[in-house]
Amino acid sequence: MVKNTLPAEAITDPRTFTDPAALHGLLARIRTTDPLPYIQAEDYAPFWLVSRHADIMEIERNAEQFINAPRQAILPISYELKARAASGGQETISYMRNLIMMDGDEHKSYRNITQTYFTPKGLAGLIGDIEALAKEFIGRMDGADGEIDFADVAMAFPLRVIMTMLGVPAEDEPLMMRLTQQTLSSQDPEFQAEGGARKAMLQMYDYFKKIINDLRETPNETLASVVANARIDGELLADRDVFGYFNIIATAGHDTTSYSLTGGMLAFLQNPDQLAKLRADPALMPLAVEEVLRWTAPVKHFCRTAVRDCTVAGKQIKAGDYLLLSFPSGSFDEKVYEDPFTFRIDRKPNRHLAFGTGPHVCLGQYLARFELQSFFRELLDRVEHIELAGEPRFVEGSFVGGVKYLPVRYTMKQQ
Ligand code: HEM
User: Fold this and answer.
1) Whole domain around residue 213: which residue ranges?
2) Is 336 domain-assigned?
3) Measured in Å, how far apart are the chain's first and last C-alpha atoms?
4) Cβ density class 342-373: b for 16+ within 10 Å, e for less
5) Is 254 helix (H, G, I), strand (E, B) or coil?
6) Is the distance from the beta carbon of residue 261 to the nearest atom of ligand 1 less than 6 Å?
7) For the whole model, what pTM was predicted?
8) Does residue 209 lie within any of the structural domains?
9) How many domains does the chain have?
């Protein structure tokens, strides 16, 4: 499963993420030799690569010392300069601010706007709808001729779930899909926008502005309306904050889940004994989904900035230093997992870091779990046999990604 061929700087190279065996070989070597190396790669601001589960947890939970502002991701300096030039020389994007850019009490107040909505209790009313959508999208395989790119189904389902919650009609979903990929996975040549990620973001801004204005005039019971009409200290959110909220839910809320669906499907196809085990005992589904999340970890990293000088894992970190939290690395840490490179659907405990941890832990984690469980449950109910029909392809990108092309051959059960 692992190849030990890449230098540590390759963690910044988008192409590294198209080859999971090489990525995991690199991360495993870093964990067991120098688990917190200082990486100085050409065209990148230097950063500490945090590879161990325990160190990621410590940093994320100590959010006063390790903050999200001012940097959320490690991207090429040339890319950042281009983005800055495009926004008139400003370091931050003037028209957009969201949860991942905030810290402390401010972050808490903004997160509280939707926190209850995204708890298992808050989402309970939606489960029926999510199950119906899983039925509808798996049902589409019935109409195909027994061979498809599974990514088409796996991309469309979470997109519909989240866009319904944001009040986006089905006919605009292809546009939203494109704009999300052009902002979140903009390193991949297939997803590059003319005018760059910023142009895609501005197009999304204009789109959501209209929805926000409509909901302010005519509020309803939806999540979109809760966000559009939220007030902090009695004031409606500023334009850039309300757009930031829509933007992060729209972007973080579907292709992450989709990459867990495609990557999970690939793991099942490569480990048919585990698929058979799940078919034989569907009660294992919640555990199986945790293993899929650990295995796929679609968010490849987030970044923190140290506020004061400190020591982590014996290294002297200076105020202002950047730390890259490698979620795929933490989720395969051999100090936490027995046989980390074995896909085992009954793994327990399984405290993976696919959703991060601490105050910024994924807001949509329970929604994503419901989606994954409903989808794979429906798949097992409807599909008799499924196998790989070609070479899968992975997203070229060091931030968010996974399997983007997954040709499969299958037969449906007779209803
Ligand atoms: C398999 C699917 C998903 C994965 C792997 C994932 C992963 C993550 C990760 C790693 C973070 C950062 C956590 C940290 O800094 O500690 C995050 C944050 C976030 N996620 Fe997800 N996510 C998924 C699905 C979703 C969905 C469905 C939503 C829909 C609402 C969502 C909304 C968010 C938001 C709003 C944040 C920012 C939270 C904050 O900064 O307070 N995610 N997610």
Assistant:
1) 37-412
2) yes
3) 38
4) ebbbebeebebbbbbbebbebbbebbbbbbbb
5) coil
6) no
7) 0.96
8) yes
9) 1
| C-beta of 256 in contact with ligand 1 (< 6 A) | yes
Pocket test for ligand 1, best of 362, 371, 400 (most atoms within 8 A of CB): 362
Does residue 251 lie within any of the structural domains?
A: yes
Report how far residue 79's alpha carbon sits from residue 77's, in angstroms, rounded to the nearest whole number: 5
State which amino acid sits at residue 358.
G
The C-alpha angle with vertex 256 and arms to 293 and 405, in degrees rounded to 5, equals 95
Atom of ligand 1 nearest to the CA of 259: 1
Cβ of 354 below 6 Å from ligand 1: yes
Indicate which CATH number applies to the domain containing 168.
1.10.630.10
Quick check: is 29 in a domain?
A: no
| C-beta of 29 in contact with ligand 1 (< 6 A) | no
Provide block-wise average pLDDT over 10 residues at a time, the chain (415 residues). 88 96 97 97 96 98 97 88 66 76 97 97 96 96 90 95 92 90 75 75 90 96 95 94 93 92 98 98 98 98 98 98 98 97 98 98 98 98 96 95 97 88
